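Board notes (copied after class):
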Amino acid sequence: MDHIKKMMSMLGEKEKARFDRIMSKPPKKNSEELHGIFPLDGKPYDMLDIIERIVDDSEFEQFKEEYGKTIICGYGRIDGWAVGIVANQRKIVKNKKGEMQMGGVIYNDSADKGARFILNCNQKKIPLVFLQDVTGFMVGSRSEQSGIIKDGAKMVNAVANSVVPKITIIIGNSYGAGNYAMCGKAYDPRFIYAWPTAKIAVMGGDQAAKTLLQIQVASRKNPKSEVQSPNADDDQKLLEKIKSHYDKQTTPYYAAARLWVDAIIDPIETRKIISEGIAAANHNPDIGEMKLGVFQV
């Protein structure tokens, strides 16, 4: 292996993608504090606190800061590399109408904002970094009337057809269609990593267990079913059993064992991992033309 490394090190330099890079600066805010910022109990937190401990000099220029606040978009540098960051805001915010919006949920305005930002980064040839802590899209008649179907499809279209390198870090929840919209494994990121705190599933363990329990209880009430209807204690035991089994399958270790993520990383290493990913992508100059098809604006 040492011999092969020596031979490869002598090869002439080939054409690169030439993503922009300048002298690296460490974050002003201590990266080691990432361990204490992310809450393990699911409580709200400010995603900007995490971003500012990853980007150079803790400088981050937001895109449409006052619009679509449940998704944070903006420009920064990581180890000198210019990047566009798309991240889920996990604290509760208010839109311009004064309406409360739940953190980690993609609303129609945040989906529209994310789609436009992704297109901008493709036009400017800036690699994209996705920081996932998403529980899904907002649902309901009010959300549908606001345009969540159109705007959600627009964001998914932009992510799916993006041609610049995409690097995804799953730091918390990665549920349902939110996994796709935030560039999950199915949308072909160059690299996808998970923090030990990641949870990858269709929905949360509590919701999934209750849904599965309801299905089983409904089957017992079917006159043709041979299964006898148990009492409430049996239902509770079954609920706990289903939840325990489901929770095991949401862990990043379960995902990594099936190659759904490339690796489980220490949060402190996030900055280094992203930099190495962009450096590797920079060796491939082949960046195709972005083709969106029908794109509703």
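Comment from the instructor: Residues 205-249 form one domain. The chain has two domains: 19-203+250-281, 205-249.
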